[in-house]
Specification:
Length: 78
């Protein structure tokens, strides 16, 4: 994309390389709710517009991403 739009190459590369920093901060009350629901054996699902590789990377950066019972990732759903 950056090669096709050299005028915007820097912002495009910044977005690509640093998007994980924009997915912060952690929203602690939401994480607490996720864990309370799981403690009660209520299934919890992740619905995201992340790409497949982006979500896999996010799981390595934020521990709670691995705690969902199922993921619905737009990059995988087509």
């Amino acid at each position: 994309m950056a090669e096709k739009h050299p005028r915007w190459a820097d912002p495009i590369c910044w977005w690509h390389d640093r998007w994980i920093h924009m997915a912060s901060p952690r929203i602690e009350p939401s994480i607490a709710l996720l864990r309370r629901l799981r403690d009660k054996r209520i299934p919890v699902f992740a619905l995201t517009n992340f790409g497949t590789h982006s979500f896999a990377y996010a799981e390595t950066q934020y521990d709670f991403f691995t705690e969902f019972d199922r993921h619905y990732i737009s990059g995988e759903l087509g």
